[in-house]
Design goal:
The protein is α/β, with parallel strands linked by helices and about 425 residues long. The strands form four sheets. Strands 2-1-3-4-5 form a five-stranded parallel sheet, sandwiched between helices. Strand 14 and strand 15 form a beta hairpin. Helix 2 packs parallel to helix 3.
Length: about 425
């Protein structure tokens, strides 16, 4: 578990932060009251702290001296202070902190929690900084790394497109306008040919033209714009975070419409909408598909014996097995209470049942921790067809028929369509 260092000499605020972290996050907290205690905690820790929440004014460090001690160890720093005069604010940002919050703001603790969660998420988010100025490129990349983004850089638009080709999961591009070989406008338009605004955000940056350039960047497909002459670290972080969170909110809305809220698997609507496109490709001999219907055996007994929370854990456990074993090209959906449907693309034509037999065994041999000091096991029956029917609905019906046969002949088995004269039972 990751640990946050709290350095706060006032008991009221120290306990308040520690209790908030314990109640609302998965972080552990170490609370000390002075700079000397903080240095001791840093030196004695078994592993690096994930982040630090620091009071600016401490008994043995009244002018923010603690910041240098912590930041030098490459730990993201959030300042929690009641004094944020312009002089203090400039000093704080000059020390490469991640952010600050005011003690007299009723929302400050929520803001700190959100910032910690943001920094944790950022490790999985790729950002590309593009600028022909080595100095400004370094300024941007250093700031982004303080917030723990996975950062790439390029000197011009040509290099940027090459980086995007190698890392198509980049979520944000920050690009200068005036660059050799390819300027920021051209780069933005080229990016938008492959990535729409719901997938990748672009922030334009320039020291030229100000508002006119901002308008041209936006018209070229950028989401936002920053002027170099008035560059403020606080504004930079705010705009970067806002654009990343906008993408996340869009993805959340999209997921809510196509995914099951409990298991994270696709829902019935997505299965049939997308599955029909795969079926059409299979009908044109572009690929092969196998359709499976799967059902957790005696699932009602799990709910009745251990409670509905245990039932939910069982559903999530089985869903995780299905999702982790199948590929991105396959579709795995929860289509009923304990019923799942799988559309597998281009599996082994000589032994199509092997994959589903493997899934059945994984479910059977995988215990489920239901949180009461005991583990339970469930089994799964699966019906499969690899024969292309007239349409996807008919394939699902055929797989469902084999599932029914599997459940009526003893459960915990895979039954699938096979050539005439061969046994359908894969047990």
């Amino acid at each position: 578990m990751e640990t946050v260092l709290i350095v706060e000499d006032t008991s009221f605020f120290g306990l308040m932060i520690k209790d908030k972290l314990k109640a609302e996050t998965a972080f552990e907290a170490v609370w000390v009251c002075s700079m000397s205690e903080a240095i001791a905690a840093l030196n004695e820790a078994d592993s690096d702290f994930f982040a630090a929440i620091l009071d600016f004014n401490l008994p043995d460090a009244p002018h923010g001296e603690i910041i240098d001690e912590v930041a030098a160890r490459n730990i993201p720093v959030i300042i929690f202070t009641s004094d944020l005069s312009e002089e203090v604010r400039e000093l704080v940002w000059s020390k490469n902190v991640a952010d600050y919050a005011l003690k007299d703001d009723s929302q400050s603790l929520d803001y700190i929690i959100n910032m910690l969660n943001r920094i944790k998420k950022n490790a999985d988010i790729k950002v590309l900084a593009v600028d022909d100025s080595m100095l400004f490129r370094k300024i941007m990349t250093d700031l982004l790394k303080i917030h723990r983004y996975n950062v790439f850089s390029a000197r011009n638009g040509v290099e940027a497109l090459d980086v995007l080709g190698k890392h198509p999961d980049i979520k944000l591009v920050i690009t200068d306008f005036s660059m050799p070989e390819m300027d920021g406008f051209t780069l933005t338009r080229r990016i938008r040919e492959k990535f729409n605004k719901n997938k990748l955000a672009i922030i334009g940056i320039s020291s030229e033209g100000k508002n006119l350039l901002a308008a041209r960047f936006i018209k070229s497909g950028a989401n936002d714009f920053i002027i170099k002459q008035s560059f403020l670290t606080e504004e930079f972080y705010s705009r970067v975070t806002q654009n990343i969170e906008n993408l996340e909110h869009i993805q959340m809305l999209k997921d809510a419409s196509v995914k099951d809220f409990l298991t994270g698997l696709y829902n019935r609507r997505y299965f049939f909408d997308t599955g029909r496109k795969l079926f059409a490709n299979a009908a044109r001999d572009n690929l092969t598909i196998s359709c499976a219907m799967a059902d957790i055996d005696h699932f009602k007994n799990v709910n009745d014996t251990y409670g509905h929370e245990a039932g939910d854990l069982a559903l999530c456990h089985v869903s995780s097995i299905l999702k982790n074993r199948m590929r991105e090209t396959d579709i795995v959906a929860r289509v009923g209470g304990e019923e799942f449907c799988i559309l597998a693309v281009n599996i082994n034509p000589d032994n199509p049942g092997a994959l589903f037999e493997e899934l059945r065994r994984r479910v059977e041999n995988s215990p489920i921790d239901i949180g009461t000091g005991q583990n339970i096991k469930v089994t799964m029956s699966i019906g499969v067809t690899s024969e292309l029917a007239d349409n996807l609905d008919d394939m699902v019906s055929h797989a469902d028929k084999f599932l029914y046969e599997a459940k009526n002949s003893g459960r915990n088995k895979v039954i699938m369509s096979k050539p005439a004269g061969e046994d359908n039972d894969w047990q």
